[in-house]
Description:
The protein is mainly β. 0% of the residues lie in helices and 46% in strands. The strands form 2 sheets. A 5-stranded mixed beta sheet has the order 2-8-7-4-5, with no helix packed on it. Strands 1-3-6 form a 3-stranded antiparallel beta sheet, with no helix packed on it. Strand 4 (50-55) and strand 5 (61-67) form a beta hairpin. 19% of the residues are buried.
Amino acid sequence: SEESEPPAEVELIPITGNISVSTESEFYTTGNSIVISGTVENLTEYEQPVVIMIVSPDGNLVTIDQVSHDSSGNYSTSVIAGGLMNSNGEYEVRAQYGAHKITAAFDFTRN
Length: 111
């Protein structure tokens, strides 16, 4: 009988080392300004925006934006809470710069 090697275990590690993202607050209600900011390290040689997405608790995309960074890699944008944000709960903020991705979260309550 042949002995076979056990399958190798592959651990997927998210690529997050080169970008940061945060919101000014952890809690928002309708009409609040959600300020999203962060920093990109190891900027690429060509101009490339940071893509910001906000995803609802049920997985729907409610906002997508392309934000330019300054020469130091800092970026910032703001979104008014409400609109397509029609469920209460935890929303995810996703920031992507090339292959680098990171997430943050905030709680939203409609009023």
